[in-house]
Write a structure and sequence with these properties.
6 helices; binds zinc ion; alpha+beta; eight-stranded mixed sheet; L-fuculose-1-phosphate Aldolase
Length: 224
């Protein structure tokens, strides 16, 4: 793949994308929990550690190499940087959102996956599995998340006793996937509280997956 943009231009776009997505993450997760990253080639921009969300500007977003070396920025990167970098090294995603949103985290505490009770679950590639518990901020947590998503074929997973992580093509896509999982987790748990949720049949769910594959604008054909 060739990229005619300069490194500085790419890094600037990544930092702006993070700062732009931060309010949506802030709305989903309590306090200063959660983090957001975006990748372009071997560069990763990620929310800084311990900075209130409302104070994050493009210039305060650290940029790292895929190996975790600091490239730009004075602030320390998120404590969950090892998880983000580990996912980028293994899965084909361009952005990652991590939140402790209450409904997905309720499933995390129950150790229960999100079953296919609504077609929006297909937005993340399938029923949302639960990665086994590992301490926050560790490489082991990254490995648990990667192997759980790889074996389920999803771009999101619930982190046991912790929260939710969702990947996407870009920042907006990752956030939308996180929102889809969180809102469906809420509906599922509310439905469970008063009755027995009805799951889509495998054929219905596969139909929804196929619709997501063809959803949106037609792919632009860049080939001559
Ligand atoms: Zn977390």
């Amino acid at each position: 793949m060739t990229d005619s943009k300069s490194d500085e231009a790419r890094e600037g776009e990544l930092r702006t994308a993070i700062a732009t997505g931060v309010p949506e993450i802030a709305a989903m997760t309590p306090g200063r929990t959660g983090n957001l990253s975006a990748r372009s080639g071997d560069r990763v921009a990620i929310t800084p550690s311990g900075v209130p969300y409302e104070e994050i500007q493009p210039g305060s977003v650290p940029v790292l190499s895929l190996d975790g070396e600091s490239v730009i920025g004075d602030l320390a990167p998120s404590s969950e940087t090892p998880m983000h970098l580990g996912i980028y090294r293994s899965l084909d995603v361009g952005a990652i959102a991590h939140v402790h949103s209450p409904w997905a985290t309720t499933l995390a505490v129950l150790g229960e996956e999100l079953p296919p009770v609504h077609y929006m679950v297909a937005a993340a590639g399938g029923p949302i599995p639960v990665a086994p518990y590992e301490p926050f901020g560790t490489v082991e947590l990254a490995e648990a998340a990667v192997s759980t998503m790889e074996s389920a074929g999803t771009t999101a997973c619930i982190l046991a006793n912790h929260g939710l992580v969702a990947g996407g093509e870009d920042v907006q896509d990752a956030i939308e996937t996180a929102v889809a999982v969180e809102s469906t987790a809420q509906v599922y748990l509310q439905a469970k509280a008063v009755g027995d949720p009805v799951e889509l049949t495998p054929a219905q769910f596969e139909g929804a997956m196929a619709q997501f594959d063809s959803y949106g604008q037609p792919e632009r054909n860049d080939a001559d």
